[in-house]
Structures are given as structure tokens and as C-alpha cells.
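Weekly modeling sync, notes
Attendees: S.R. (lead), two postdocs, one rotation student

Agenda item 3: backlog of single-chain predictions. S.R. asked that every request posted to the team notebook include the full sequence so nobody has to chase files. The rotation student volunteered to paste the first one in as an example of the format we agreed on. Action items at the bottom.

Example entry:
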Amino acid sequence: MSWFLEASYAGVAVWTIVVIGAIVLVGAFVQATIGLGLGMLGAPLIALMEPQLVPTLLLLLAVPISTAVLVVERHHIDWRVVAWALPARVPGIFLGVWLVTAIAGRWLGVAVAVMVLVAVALTLHTVEVRQTPATLVGAGFLAGTAGTAVAVGGPPMAIVMAHRPPREVRGTLSFFFVVGSVLSVGWFAVLGELPRSSIVLAIVYVPLLLVAIPAGAWANHRLPRELFRRGVLALCAASAVVLLVRSVAG
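Predicted structure, as returned to the notebook:
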């Protein structure tokens, strides 16, 4: 037991790797079930244990998860949404990377917690937003900023697509997130801000995704969707509040 508590791999304690693996497994299952979960659930919990892994580990894991959805829904992409929102993500990426590198210590935890709480609120109280070039550009920019800074970029895009057919939403957002996550990770790498531990652990956790994604897809129509969704959001909010209190208290 003492070995387990003291051992480390890739600069991270083995017990922490196991706990984060459980978070990734649950988060990926939830995301495959209701379309969100890994970033909103994982960001505050991982930031409590290993802040240096946020957001890069979650961004790396977002690529295979979104790719799996894209393979299934590739024929349902709304290219008009992509054409307006994806280019706007690029300046959002620059701002998000700057925020991560400029905000140090406990204030990064505060930023993660606040963004997750805002994302939960937006997800719970979706308002009708018309799809116009202005709203798509704005959503793309906000998704790029929040997605890069704390790996929680889904809500802005989900709001502008809230009233579209589900398969169109999944196909469009998965394409947006695959490309966006690759760009975000690439910019972190260019700046030398992509920790080796995030790369190694992302590879280690890929087998968990191979289990969680099919399981989530199977459960998609078998769970009480709205009740499950609200339970997950409550857990995300609770995790964010714990992180916020801990970060503010120092």
C-alpha cells in the first residue's frame, strides 16, 4: 500500500492516475450518453488533484471522443455553421492559451470553477438564439476561449444549435471540436506549454475511451435522459464549487 501511495509515473502519483482514470471513464461514458460531460466533470476534479494537466489532458482526450462521434454522424454536418464558427475559434484559442499561461496558481482553479459553473447554468437554462453570422462567430470565439482555457467549450455552440435535429448537432459539433481541439493542442505545443505528462496519460487512457464510448452509446436510449443529465450537471456544479472554495481559501 505504501508503494502505491508513493509511486509515480510521468511525474504524476500512481494513485492520482488511477483516480483520474476513473473520472475519464465516467466522463467519457456520460459524454457518449448525453453529449457533454468529460470537460465539465473532468476539469474541476482534475484541477483539484493535478492542475498542470488542465486543460491539455482533456483537450487531447477530446480528439478521439469527438472523432468517434464524427465517424457516425459525418453525413449530418451543417457546413454553414462550421464556416462561420470554426474560423472564429482561432482568435479564441489564442486568448485561451494566454489565459492559461498568464493565470497561475490558485487563480487558475478559480477560473476553471467559474467557467464550469457558467457552463452548467447555460446548459440548464438554454435560451433561444437565432443562427446568424454574428451569433455563430460569437459562439465560435467563446467556445475557442473556454474550450482552450479549461476544456469546456461546448455550451456556447450548443446554445446556437439547440433547436436543430440531434444528429445534425452531434455531427456539426463533433467536427468543430475535433478540429478545434487539434488546433488548441497544437498551439500549446508550439509555445512549449504541452506537458509530457498530459501526452503520456492521454495515451494511457485511450483504452478507457474504447470501453466508455460504446457503453454510453448503448445507454443513450435506455436511461432516463433528462434526469440523468440533471444529475450529471449537479455533480459538475458541486465539483466546481469545491474547487472554487479550495482555490479561494488557498
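Discussion: group reviewed the output briefly. Residues 166-190 form the longest helix (25 residues).
Action items: rotation student to repeat for the remaining queue; S.R. to check formatting next week.
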